[in-house]
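User: Hi! I have a protein structure encoded as tokens and I'd like to know what sequence might fold into it. I'm fairly new to this, so please keep things simple.
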């Protein structure tokens, strides 16, 4: 085989995991037009050769493919496809690390997609989930699906693990629904955000969230955005994790005062999201102003939910 092969480029978007009450089970992908996500370029190389270079991470990520989510996801694709080849991988980080926007998932997903394309697309997007989750397992210790699955499939998804099987339900995205994410110049480590969660929660809180997950699914199915104000409420993780994000209460309230249908932490933070009808720009501006009034620099991006693949 000749190895003057072309580079294959793939993009994977930022994602909002733990959407509202859906701790570890609900995720949303942001449209590429928001400009938030990772790009990965892959080309075939001689068998046994695996090279990884990274830009945009300020030198913080390992370039050893065995220690990087992109390398692990790419190698899993090769294994699943039964290919005998090496790879050259160029990862371009467009997401800040520790932002709560699925940075590791975007790397794993973009690498999996690009590797699959370099091989001639032997695997479906659904099959690539296994490779993406292998990358997430390296990053988080557990193959959480709620960032990497939306990064691969787009849209809004409900994900439930049953023993070895992952059940997926693509939820409809109302055409009037707009989303904004606000990224403060703060960082929350996933390990810290996990550590603040209690091992046990009151039964009343479990019932509270269970009802709101059902309400959120129903609101999207029925295109009833008025229900989102209640449906996006949470008692399982945000009351604990929000304490790690300076200004959380003020910023969330600013979004609601600006007309948001609901707002909360994106993933484990520090980014926050808000959903709005038609245009979430005013919510983003209000949220940034709230952060800046507390002396915290922030930026925002507003647009649509990514289309389903």
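Assistant: Happy to help. Inverse folding works backwards from shape to sequence: for each of the 309 positions I chose a residue that suits the local structure. Here it is:
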């Amino acid at each position: 085989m000749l190895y003057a092969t072309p580079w294959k480029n793939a993009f994977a978007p930022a994602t909002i995991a733990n959407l509202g009450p859906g701790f570890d089970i609900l995720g949303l992908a942001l449209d590429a037009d928001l400009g938030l996500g990772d790009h990965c370029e892959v080309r075939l190389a001689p068998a046994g050769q695996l090279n990884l270079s990274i830009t945009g991470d300020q030198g913080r990520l390992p370039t050893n493919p065995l220690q990087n989510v992109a390398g692990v996801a790419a190698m899993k694709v090769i294994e699943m496809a039964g290919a005998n080849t090496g790879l050259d991988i160029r990862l371009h980080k467009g997401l800040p690390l520790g932002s709560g926007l699925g940075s590791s998932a975007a790397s794993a997903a973009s690498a999996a997609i690009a590797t699959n394309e370099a091989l001639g697309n032997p695997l479906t997007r659904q099959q690539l989930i296994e490779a993406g989750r292998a990358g997430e397992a390296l990053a988080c210790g557990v193959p959480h699906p709620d960032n990497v699955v939306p990064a691969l499939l787009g849209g809004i998804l409900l994900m439930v693990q049953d023993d070895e099987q992952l059940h997926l339900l693509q939820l409809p995205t109302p055409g009037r629904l707009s989303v904004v994410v606000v990224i403060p110049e703060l960082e929350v480590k996933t390990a810290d955000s996990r550590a603040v969660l209690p091992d046990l929660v009151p039964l009343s809180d479990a019932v509270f969230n269970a009802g709101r997950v059902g309400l959120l699914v129903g609101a999207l199915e029925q295109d009833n955005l008025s229900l989102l104000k209640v449906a996006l409420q949470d008692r399982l993780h945000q009351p604990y994790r929000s304490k790690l994000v300076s200004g959380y209460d003020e910023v969330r309230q600013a979004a609601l005062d600006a007309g948001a249908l609901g707002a909360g932490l994106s993933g484990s933070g520090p980014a926050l999201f808000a959903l709005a009808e038609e245009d979430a720009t005013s919510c983003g501006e209000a949220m940034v102003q709230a952060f800046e009034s507390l002396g915290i620099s922030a930026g925002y991006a507003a647009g649509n939910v990514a289309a389903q693949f």
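A useful reference point when you look it over: The mean pLDDT is 94. Feel free to ask if any position seems puzzling.
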